[in-house]
Amino acid sequence: MLEYTSISELVQEAEKRNIRISELVLEDQALSMEKTSLEVYEQMELSFHIMMDSVKEGMKKDQRSTSGLTGGEGFLMNEYAGKGEGLSGIFMTKAIARALAVAGCNASMGKIVAAPTAGSCGILPGCLVSLYEDRGFKEDDIIMSMFTAGAFGMVIAQKASIAGAQGGCQAECGSAAAMAAGALVELMGGTPSQCADACAMAISSQMGLVCDPVAGLVEIPCIKRNVSGLAIAFSSADMALAGISSKIPVDECIDAMREVGEALPASLKETAGGGLATTPTGRKLRDQVFGSKGV
Amino acid sequence: MNVFDIIGPVMIGPSSSHTAGAVRLGRVVNKLIDERTLKKVEITLSGSFAQTYKGHGTDKALLAGIMGYKSYSPEIRNALEIADERGIEYSFNKENISGAHPNTARIHYYLDDGSDGVMQGASIGGGNILVNQINGMTVEFNGDNNTILVMHEDKPGVIASVTNLMHWEHEDLNISNFRLSRLHKGGEAIMTIEIDNPPPDSLVDDIRGIDHVINAILIRRV
Ligand code: SF4
After folding, report:
1. Least CB–CB distance from B55: residue in A67, A116, A158
2. Which of A197, A236, B136, B195 lies 20 to 30 Å from B205 when distance is taken between CA atoms?
3. Measured over all CA atoms, what is the biggest interatomic distance in chain A, rounded to whole angstroms?
4. How far is the CA of A171 from the centre of ligand 1 (A)?
């Protein structure tokens, strides 16, 4: 059984057997969960379907968060994307709309799949649903690619962290982008080592990102960080597919991420004690939701 | 850890610790209540739970869990209304429980048969929980496994009787974690036993029949 303590281990094993990382992981997970490959695959299929539902739910015009601080971002972006004049092109603007929609669905107490967390739940569906709906990728390939994403996430969780409270937002949106980048490369027919390169470049791009949620709520800046995570996932995947490699090997990037996460002060790790949370407007918004006295 | 700990859980947002974990804490109380009828709950929120519960729906999530809903049930959104319909009284208050994890809740429940109980636990991140206290006694379990709580008198041989019974009568039961806590020597004590396999239905009744055992409860994975 696989240990998931190193991405290069996954790459070597997949390349040795000449299979995709996702195939390796599906087989291994079925074994360790004492289920059939089909059962494990079907559980992932269900997750993908829930992701598509969250996109729809969060795209609604009247989507509002429980706190009232945010809402309607997915709808606005989708309208804009529909005009076809977006700077980053129709494909990207629509993908951005999907990431916003899923993150918004989460903020309004909708049903989502944490990937790897609730705060970063828009990145993977933003990427994958876009390839499915706008690029004609087959559903089973998309679902398989989620095993590659999941495996990269497991390594990051074990070697660094996927919790904002422990590692800052690099651990949440950073990990999500790194996972998505790997999945995208695999879908596009890249090699296992290109998947690892994309993962490494995505981690490098968000190294040090702090967790500073206004009022301690998973909304500001979280919802929009799903968009930057998505953009980094696509750009890292494209770089890897173009043949650009990460100069720092992926496992070393993950080690660096842990080290940086540990070095971040507590005020920038989900305590709402710094960053955007303590800006004058951040404080005002907090008071608006919880009253000026706090607790 | 498996791949669905990363791509998952499927949950109602917005926060795995403040929403999904809160549902699971509530579910522990649901298991403690079992088939009996709940009349009233007093929920005390501490630390970050106290500060942000409104924006995260922590109040709804706890109540939904107490009523038996899961962290992916859409009913969480309407938990307050559902409790009203079922005639369950509820109150939320904030208090700093000293020394407790920042996301701690204490739930005092009252049943229509006149009995009551208290559970205190924390949501420790990623939807994971740790139950710290039951009826004033220290316990420690995370609800990921099937957990058996045995309330008993602190007398020599009780632990051996329980574990012997598990081994000899229910041979394939493997204990993955064991903890003992007591109020004072010779007083009331509690065993927390986590097991790997799903326990047979008769196990808890068998344990209740052991000398000096006051009660035993099975909390299936939440
Ligand atoms: S800012 Fe913090 S709470 Fe928001 S998504 Fe990032 S890690 Fe999660």
Report:
1. A67
2. B136
3. 61
4. 9
Residues of A in contact with B126 (CB under 8 A): 114, 117, 162-163
**Strand, helix or coil at A149?**
helix
Q: What spacing in Å lies between the alpha carbon of B88 and ligand 1's midpoint?
A: 35
CATH class of B146-219: alpha beta
In whole angstroms, what is the distance from residue A44 CA to residue A50 CA? 10
Instruction: Give dist(CA A184, CA A27) in Å, integer.
Output: 20
Residue nearest ligand 1's atom 2 by CA: A211
Q: Do B3 and A25 touch (CB under 8 A)?
A: yes
The tokens for A174 are 């950073």
Shortest alpha-carbon distance between residue A85 and chain B (Å): 32
Helix (H, G, I), strand (E, B) or coil at A15: helix
Q: How far is the CA of A213 from the centre of ligand 1 (A)?
A: 6
Going from the Cα of B206 to the center of ligand 1, the distance in angstroms, rounded, reads 48
pLDDT band at residue A269 under the 50/70/90 scheme: very high
Q: Strands B89-94 and B103-111, how do they pair?
A: unpaired
Contact list in A for residue B16 (CB cut-off 8 A) is 114, 117-118
Give me the architecture of the B3-135 domain, per CATH.
2-Layer Sandwich (3.30)
Are B3-135 and B146-219 the same fold in CATH? no
Is residue A183 within 8 Å of A148, Cβ to Cβ?
yes
Domain boundaries along the sequence of chain A? 7-290
Instruction: Read off the pLDDT of residues B199-208 as tens digits, 9 standing for 90 and up.
Output: 888 999 999 9
Q: How high is the ipTM of this complex?
A: 0.96
Q: Give the integer Cα–Cα distance in Å for A4 and A24.
A: 12
Distance of alpha carbon A255 from alpha carbon A253, whole angstroms: 5
Whole-number pLDDT of residue A294: 46
B156 has a chain A CB within 8 A of its CB:
no
Tell me the pLDDT tens digit for each residue of B170-188: 877 889 999 998 878 889 8
Atom number, ligand 1, closest to the C-alpha of residue A171? 7
A117–B56 C-beta distance less than 8 A: no
Residue with the smallest CA separation from ligand 1 atom 1 is: A211
> Measured between alpha carbons, how far is B21 from B105 in angstroms, rounded to an integer?
11
Which of A25-29, A136-140, B189-193 shows the lowest per-residue confidence on average (mean pLDDT)?
A: B189-193
